[in-house]
C-alpha cells in the first residue's frame, strides 16, 4: 500500500504505479449473492451444471461483480492522510476484456493517472486493472474517480 501524508504529496506522485493487491479467490457464493442483490441470475453465473457445458467450462463472475470489488481493492493500494473524506466520484472507460471463472484468483494493480484541483478538493483518476491469475488479458480495466477533500 502506498501511503500519502496529504493531497500535496499525492499530487507529486501523479503518473506512478501503486503496486498490486493481494490475490483473492472468487467464490460461487459471492457470485450467487451478487446475483440475488442485482436480480441478474443468468445461467452463466449461477447454474454450475449448465455452465460446465457452456463456452467457459464453468460459471463466471458478473462483470459488475468484478467492478464492485474495486473500492476494497483500491483501499489496499492507496491511503491518503489529512483528508476530511474521500468520495467515490464515478468511473471512466470501464471494460471487461476476459471473464473471471468462479474459483479463480484475482488481484488489482493501480496507477495514478491524473489529479485535478476542483472547488471541493482534488479529483483523482486512478487506472485500475483486475487480473486473473495465469490469464494474459485483464478481467476489468477501469478509471476510478475519487474526490479527495482535505481536512
From TrEMBL:
PANTHER family for this protein: MAOC-LIKE DEHYDRATASE DOMAIN-CONTAINING PROTEIN (PTHR42993)
Protein name: MaoC family dehydratase
Domain of life: Bacteria
MaoC-like domain ranges (all copies): 12-127
InterPro entries per record: HotDog_dom_sf (IPR029069), MaoC-like_dom (IPR002539), NodN-like (IPR039375)
Pfam families the record matches: MaoC_dehydratas (PF01575)
Species assigned in the record: Herbidospora galbida
Membership in a protein family: Belongs to the enoyl-CoA hydratase/isomerase family.
Amino acid at each position: 500500500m502506498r501511503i500519502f501524508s496529504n493531497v500535496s504529496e499525492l499530487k507529486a506522485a501523479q503518473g506512478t504505479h501503486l503496486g498490486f493487491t493481494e490475490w483473492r479467490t472468487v467464490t460461487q457464493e459471492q457470485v450467487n449473492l451478487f446475483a440475488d442483490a442485482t436480480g441478474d441470475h443468468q445461467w452463466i453465473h449461477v447454474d454450475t451444471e449448465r455452465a460446465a457445458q457452456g463456452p467457459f467450462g464453468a460459471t463466471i463472475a458478473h462483470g459488475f461483480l468484478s467492478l464492485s470489488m474495486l473500492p476494497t481493492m483500491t483501499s489496499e493500494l492507496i491511503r491518503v492522510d489529512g483528508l476530511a473524506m474521500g468520495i467515490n466520484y464515478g468511473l471512466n472507460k470501464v471494460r471487461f476484456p476476459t471473464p473471471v471463472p468462479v474459483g479463480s484468483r484475482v488481484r488489482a494493480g493501480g496507477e495514478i493517472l491524473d489529479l485535478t484541483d476542483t472547488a471541493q478538493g482534488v479529483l483523482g483518476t486512478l487506472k485500475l486493472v483486475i487480473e486473473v491469475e495465469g490469464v494474459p488479458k485483464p478481467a476489468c480495466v477501469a478509471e476510478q474517480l475519487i474526490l479527495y477533500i482535505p481536512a
